[in-house]
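This entry is passed on directly below:
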Amino acid sequence: MVRLKYAVLLILAGLGLAACRPAPTAVPTQTPPSIPTSIPVVIPTTLPPTAAIPPSPTPIPAYGPTGFPANINPLTGLEVSDPNVLNRRPILIKVSNESEVVRPQSGLSFADQVWEYQMEGFAQTRFTAIIYSQSPERVGSVRSARLIDVEHLVDMYGGILVFSGGSSNLADPPGSPPRIRELVLRAPWADRAISEQYGDGPPLLVRIPDIPRPGVASWHTLFAVPSEIWNKANAEGFNQRPVLDGFRFDYTVPAGGTPTTEVVIDYPSYGPKHTWRYDTASGRWLSWTDDQPDGDTLAPGQQLAFDNVVIVYAEHYEADFLEDDNAKLYSVGANLMGEGQAVLLRDGQRFEVIWRRSNPNSLIQFFDAAGNVIAFKPGTTWFNVASSNIFPPAITFTP
């Protein structure tokens, strides 16, 4: 049924857009939330002279956006038992979200951060998992890289990119635009790219059948082994710790939030629909995909949960090369330079914020209306990238 629906989508793409542009089910353009121009200031009432002032509790420290102590993870704001794990490069692993066949994925609950974004045709999403402070036995299933990785995420984290492969212009006429393979090979971090396409295999990338279920297709059986990837990075001399300044973490909830129990990010076509619901017991956001609870094969019985969820509104565009030759779908890029609007969800509240990034080699940052770096809850973060101009997801908040 999914393939029939996707075939209809491709027929419409040929009719509706120039140069074979895809045309998934039309979704009205999502207007990003407005950013308030000021935040109300509450002035506390002065205590009368005779009132007893209770002793102040020991404050819980806040960290960032710079000056993180050696034992504090700059991607989570959490203390690590062994500070040496922070003296290595983050690993950016491409993870499939093709359909229910690949769910539950492996290792996402061990990621410090995860990025979800729209792919060619604007018809489905894929993940980039940022593995840094923890080292799960495997992460996957691993699939091919996309423009957002090559143009933004690897530079942003100074990381190691792990993927199955990428589109290539080797069979194209001379002078054809470079595709993912060529863009990776010419990147300044090309030596930090690990892929079957470049000859990498066990023990870095391994084929494991029947995960998450028996009989899964062979292209869904590739998994990354973080510990072995870091071993290779050490042996080849590219496992230096990058600068990861940019985020601020504080258990104290910022002022000005709106109580929120649920957010639905419904990507076009069979996208899929990603739902986050706040769980007051754990203080985390629980993940559902197409109304089914998400899990992790490495954490049986536990629902996938993150402490922060961020919706990043960004302009999207179609590149000048095909990502899918058979379907005639052009590669999709997102502009994560400059600034734009975003929504931060933490502690059962949402905050309308602004994202900014001016240096390609720096992390994206998030600011409140007064221009201050807004504090995330210490813990893990999931980023949902949403097109703000073409084929945007439908996003709803409750209440």
In short: The chain has four helices and 24 strands. Confidence is low (pLDDT under 50) at residues 1-54. The CA atoms of residues 283 and 347 lie 6 Å apart.
